[in-house]
Specification:
binds adenosine-5'-triphosphate; single chain; binds magnesium ion; about 15% strand; eight-stranded mixed sheet; alpha/beta; Rossmann fold
Length: about 260
């Protein structure tokens, strides 16, 4: 059984940053396990934090767009197996790193209905994901993808918040919407990012308790990632965050979280 975990939260709270630190943990400790990272954000920031050179053509959105164009132009031979075609294309766009594979969703292209292709895609991604022990998704900010239920196969959700009211409110809305549309996450993990204020911590702890009481869900505050100057510097000069030293205090904390979240 694979473990599928997604990371969500308000825009700019540190989802991709924490994803990178947790991916570092997986790369370091799960060398014997197959890990798939899915960059589900159309703005696609995962390659940058992982130091991955990418090709704009190698995204799920791009290959589905090409297939749709070919179907519309009628340029495919009769009886052509579109599912097999898509499957072959997907294998070509997976970035294979020594410790994990990466799949990039990319930006939606063109208008019109992708329902047929999305169904094909689902039939390909489901068995593909079975080849992995851990599937980890970095998601775009906002709540729309929850109501579209694109996250229906996710088992556990990490919600990141900073010390802002909007960060806390977004956490509440994510829990509310995901229970409304019956996403049935087995576990909600809350991460406080850039927290250095005891009042903010106790307010967050109260809010989590309220969510637990109201929605009867398994929700747990897993800890706080400190504000870290090396994260800021690496972001500004474009150095991959995954290469931070093991002693970096933000990574040390992420490593502690990784041990709890990811099951051996
Ligand atoms: N703990 C931290 N210490 C210092 N800087 C941080 C920390 N966490 C995040 N940042 C910085 O904050 C900015 C936003 O972080 P990040 O891109 O991870 O957020 P996000 O939630 O993924 O954003 P988006 O909603 O756009 O996807 C980045 O410049 C990042 O380097
Ligand atoms: Mg991000």
């Amino acid at each position: 059984m694979s473990q599928t975990i997604a990371i969500s939260g308000k825009g700019g709270v540190g989802k991709t940053t924490i994803a990178a630190l947790l991916i570092k943990y997986l790369a370091k400790h799960f060398t014997d396990r197959d890990v798939l990272i899915i960059d589900g954000d159309p703005a696609s920031n995962i390659p940058e934090v992982l130091g991955l050179k990418t090709d704009l053509d190698k995204t799920i959105s791009r290959i589905t767009f090409h297939l749709k164009q070919q179907i519309e132009k009628g340029s495919l031979p009769p009886g052509y197996d579109k599912g097999l075609h898509l499957q072959n294309e997907i294998y070509k766009i997976i970035y294979e790193k020594p410790d994990y594979d990466v799949l990039i969703l990319g930006r939606g292209e063109g208008k019109g209905c992708y329902c047929f292709i999305n169904n094909l895609l689902k039939n390909i991604l489901d068995p593909l994901e079975e080849n992995y022990d851990i599937i980890f998704l970095d998601m775009e900010a906002g709540l729309e993808h929850f109501s579209r239920r694109t996250d229906r196969d996710v088992d556990e959700l990490i919600i990141v918040t900073d010390m802002s009211k909007m960060g806390f409110n977004t956490m509440d809305r994510i829990v509310e919407i995901s229970t409304e549309v019956h996403l049935n996450f087995k576990k909600y993990w809350i991460v406080g990012n850039r927290f250095d204020n005891e009042d903010a911590k106790s307010i967050l702890e109260d809010r989590i308790q309220q969510l637990k009481d109201k929605f009867q869900i398994d929700i747990e505050l897993i800890g706080y990632i400190p504000q870290n100057s090396e994260i800021i510097k690496r972001n500004l000069i474009g150095e991959a965050l995954i290469d931070v030293p093991d002693e970096n205090p933000a990574y040390v904390e992420a490593e502690r979280m990784g041990r709890i979240i990811f099951k051996h």
